[in-house]
Amino acid sequence: MIRIPDRLRDYVRCRHQAFWLSEGASLLLSLSLGDRSLMTDQEHYWLRTAGLSHLTSLSGTHLLFILGPFRRLWSSTSLPRKSRSCLMLPLICLPGILSGWKSGISRASIMALSLELDGPLGRHRPVFNSLFWAGALLLAIHPYAIYDSGFWMSLTTAAAVSWVSEAGLGSLRLSFRFSLAAQLVILPYQMMTAPGFQLLAPLANVLAIPLAALLMSVTYLGLALISLIPAQLPLAHALTQYLSSSLRPGVRLFEWLAARLASSRLAFIPLRWGLLFLPLLFLMVLVKKKGGLGKVLARTWVIIILLWFFLVILLFLPQGHQVIFLDVGQGDASLILTRQGQSILIDGGDKGMGYNTLIPAARMLGLAAIDLAILTHGHSDHALGLAELIEVGFIRHLCLPSYEEKQGPEDPQDLTFDLLALARSKGLPVSFLKRGDRLEAKDFSLEVLYPDRVPATRDLNRYSLVMKLTLDHVDLLMTGDLTAEGERSLQASGQDFSADVLHLAHHGSGSSSTPAFLDLCQPQTTLISLAARNRYGHPDPKVLASLADRGIKVLRTDQSGAVFLKIDRGKGRIRTWISGNQG
Description:
Layout: H1 4-15, H2 17-20, H3 25-33, H4 41-50, H5 60-75, H6 81-99, H7 103-121, H8 127-141, H9 149-165, H10 171-191, E1 196-197, H11 201-227, H12 234-263, E2 269-270, H13 271-290, H14 293-297, H15 301-315, E3 321-325, E4 334-337, E5 343-346, H16 353-364, E6 372-374, H17 380-391, E7 398-401, H18 416-425, E8 430-433, E9 438-440, E10 444-450, E11 466-471, E12 474-478, H19 484-492, E13 501-503, H20 515-521, E14 525-528, H21 541-549, E15 553-556, H22 557-560, E16 563-568, E17 571-576
Parallel strand pairs: 5-6, 6-7, 7-8, 12-13, 13-14, 14-15
Antiparallel strand pairs: 1-2, 3-4, 3-16, 4-5, 9-10, 10-11, 11-12, 16-17
């Protein structure tokens, strides 16, 4: 008896597998069952940035999608109130059963059951009373939920929406206020991972929620009807295809809406700009309340607003340069933030790192986009993360290695030209770097030391871009996957590539970082970007021994996670994500 909900959930997934695997059904699976396993990283990004990701986790909103049409249907009949309540009880439980009773839908189901039973029992329970008992019951069943931010987010959002629902406004205004209230409640949780404002989220929800409700309701109804037909009959297959094709335009419209809103510059406003303009919003509210600008300016509010501007500007004054060597597994990605506010990304890691590491890291730093991205060479562990950022418009300018005229077949592992084609299709400006190219600002410079051009018949690692960054008199050498042959070519050029910090080439491979190269570079600290227990055996023990013999401090992303270097007034300070070691 206890296993019945699990069996029903497995039946819906397995019996209608052909439907869930059809085009666009990953969104329907998340809307209907709260299962996001089939969604791509890009789909997750669009929904998260547009403020619609909550629709992919079943909650009270989804329960309203299901119950609303049936409430209207039952109310148009002559059925007694108790009979209608009995018919509603299974529908209230259905989304929770299919999604595995996660916190959001559990809380909503308890509240709905409580309110539904009030009628037959002759009670009138305030909605906040139901909310309290739902929270108390969930904590009694799962005491450790008190430490779960998702539990509190669901509870506080429900409280805010319930409070707004008492306003009794028209449906459109009420929908907008629902969305706005929910977004304001979620804001503190969002600030923990992405300090900024999703200005378009209320509008996105007003537009997307009716469409999501329609898609979810039709999916439930369609699959219920198909379940009545034996799976082996051709009719069941034909109806499955018909349901899938009928829902596809709605799915495409939903995805298009999420993508367009997420691509807007207003989709994410960094915290500093939001705080800066908050006094203007406050001033507008005061003017409306007091009945004129003069009455407001005559008071001390103008002093308070000016003081707020001053404090916000003081808070966000640039305080040195920052270099973050991101933990992207067996790949490379380094993010540089200059004192003037420019952002430069060197390499982007492998597939999935753009969506799951680079964008979250940039958001945490209050970046709406990366100003300049540089690819050292075209291998996937450096290039695919950049491709993901380009795909969603997160890069404003791309720099690629400069190639000679192509002769013979291309290296199938070289993704440089794929990145170039993608950038041009998105209208992204592209520049090509070679030795002697230089970027400069007030106390920042980036100089390309190697190579002149990448030969057509080439070893990609040997011809990785080598760049020397100077940040407030602190030198960093970025070497990509440079091999020993490339190091010898760099040494023969006679250029000064000494550095305080060396980003060790090719993840610490034994084919790089020769003793002669290390002697000329003379770094105090070296950083190795690699995955724990990788199949290549990186870093090579001989390379580590060579670094130890020279007294060079070694930091590794497989041991320390991301490594943060902060540079101010000619001095650098290093800390790591996991251990917090400083140096």
